[in-house]
Amino acid sequence: MPENTVQYMPECKRDESIPGICKLHLPSARQSENIYSLYRQDGGWAWAVLLSSMISHIILMGITFSFGVYFIVLKEYFNATAMQTLWIGCINTGLVLGGGPIAAITLNKFGCRPSIIVGGLLAALGFLLSYFVTNTYQLMLTYGLVTGLGFGLVYTPCVVMVSNYFNKWRYLATAIACTGEGLGFVIFPIIFNLEIEHYGWRGSMIVNAGIVLNLVVCGFVMKPCQTDRAIVKMDLIDASLLKDFWMFLFAFSMIFWNIGTIVFHFIVSDYLIENNIETGKAIYFLTIMGVANMIGHPFAGLTVLLPSLPHANKWIYVTSVLIYGTGTLLFVLDTTYEWYIFLGIVVSRTKSKVPVP
User: Fold this and answer.
1) How many CB atoms neighbour CB 304 within 10 A?
2) Using only C-alpha atoms, what is the Rg of the chain?
3) How far does Cα 42 stand from its chain's mean position?
4) Which of 161, 241, 349, 356 minimizes the number of CB atoms within 10 Å of its CB?
5) Residue 11 β-bridge partners
6) Alpha-carbon distance 54 to 174, whole Å?
7) Which of 356, 357, 338, 340 lies closest to 348 in space, CA to CA?
8) What is the pLDDT of residues 49-75, one digit of tens each?
9) pLDDT tens readout for residues 236-289
10) What angle do CA 116, 183, 355 make, to 5 degrees?
């Protein structure tokens, strides 16, 4: 073992005075200082982890939230209803964002790196199987279930690794990593449209499988640190936090926030087409929203620079939800492309301003 490697595994013990919280008990103050300097350095290998996390967000969130392009094509190809087609993307997204408990199992058992690698392979497999489907129900299993589960195994570890490697600038680093989400919104609608034009939607699934395999590479970059398991390992389900009324209200709000934003991204292009907007412009509309989202994300992490402003995150979140909900309602007031672009920029900017916890 190299001389500069810390040879002590911190012990995680439950703090009975604070429900749901694990405290790290290190053998000595010196060992604690060594671990802090190696892994809470806000620099060095932390930048590689941050870049890897950002690329992972570009791929998995860009693909997930650009499903609106496939929504238009698949609905027409299979002569399916909007509800049937929407379920394909909803199952996928539900597992990406709601697969936390499953990801927690792999994190506790194996760590972040294996979880990301396995998730990338599983997501690629789902795309490969999607090439052979003959109806929307099979796509719900391949793209929805298999790929969604793979993305879910990647999403949580990417956020955890950034949190582990950054201390002072953790909020800002997480916001920068999540900027990949907006960049994915920008490029993947264009990529999907080009793939479908040149290879058909089935051929595009093979190309997407190759793109998703880059998550495996990102997983290898996620160098494990000895504090990983101690920080992550805790009860998979701890409902004690929900006894706090405000925490319960926030969790309840986040459920509806995600439902509203996800469905909007899936159907907005189809909505524009039904209002006599050209298909190319309707798809390009997703890219415009992605640009606005990408620009807004870093500002969500700047609340770390406002220590004197109490509850800054809370007020930004409440304001963002209010503006986003109002903006989506205003879509029905006009049918011009310029009006849609204006509202798309407004709602995307407010979505990206929701602070990371």
Assistant:
1) 17
2) 21
3) 22
4) 241
5) 25
6) 9
7) 340
8) 889 999 999 998 889 988 888 998 999
9) 555 666 677 777 777 777 777 777 777 788 888 888 888 888 888 888 888 888
10) 80
Longest CA–CA span in the chain (Å) reads 69
Would you state the structure tokens that stand for residue 196, as one six-digit string?
């479908």
Determine what percent of the chain is predicted with pLDDT higher than 70: 76
Tens of pLDDT along 199-240? 999 999 999 999 999 999 999 988 876 544 444 454 555 566
Q: Which amino acid is at 288?
A: I
Separation of first and last alpha carbons in the chain = 36
- Dist CA 311 CA 319 (whole Å): 13
Within 10 angstroms of residue 197's Cβ, the number of other Cβ atoms is: 9
Could you tell me where the DSSP H helices lie in the chain? 29-39, 45-65, 67-77, 82-98, 100-110, 112-130, 136-139, 148-165, 170-212, 214-221, 228-232, 245-274, 279-300, 312-329, 337-352
pTM of the model: 0.73
* E strand or H helix at 12: strand 11-14
